[in-house]
Amino acid sequence: MKNKNIKIISFLGLPASGKGTQAQILADKIGAKVSGIGSLIRDEIEHADMKDPFYADMKDKYDKGIPQSDEIVIDIVKKDIHKSGSRIIFDNFPFSEKQASLFFKLYQDIDADMPILIIVQIDRATALKRILSRRICSNCETVYIDDGNQICEKCGGALISRADDNEETLTKRINEYIPRMEEVLRAFKQNGKIIEIDGEKSIGEVSEQIHKDLQNANII
Fold this sequence. Notes:
The chain contains 8 helices and 8 strands; from the N terminus they run E-H-E-H-H-H-E-H-E-H-E-E-E-H-E-H. By secondary structure, it is α/β, with parallel strands linked by helices. Helix 4 runs parallel beside helix 5, helix 5 (97-110) crosses helix 7 and helix 6 packs across helix 7.
């Protein structure tokens, strides 16, 4: 008997697809928590004893921009699920075939219902255009699409462009994303549920479609 009270939804999409925004909108609607792997790893490191070689190595990798092992990521995800209760949304996870495989094993261990993957689809040109026009608050890191404003509406910090938001770097990043997303899609077609959303539309239209599709699938 599956524990249908545990609702865990994963969002995936190209950079600037709006998956993070949509994850938060959905979370606010259904009373869930959004978890990003980067923030979970940062939190794990901040509360760890750096005298422990295991955590010292984690921090060293994090500081150097080296990805943590899939096993460590899954362990952190498992802790987060147990802390967060029955409703949780993951942003940009799982992000490899191995992570997906470990993720499905975790679902079996906690006896939850089938995992749900929401893919927010945009094409490469849209991703590139959106990223090149975005600005980030230098203080609170809120992301804006460039509309001429120089000051963050939330905290008053200066809006800046990220150093790595250039066409060459972004094209490479997008090209690296696509095969990994395809791996996860193949894995979910065998073991989970997939909802594909047109991310080219407005934020409001996308969020309405996500909510509608989840309701039609009896997921929320």
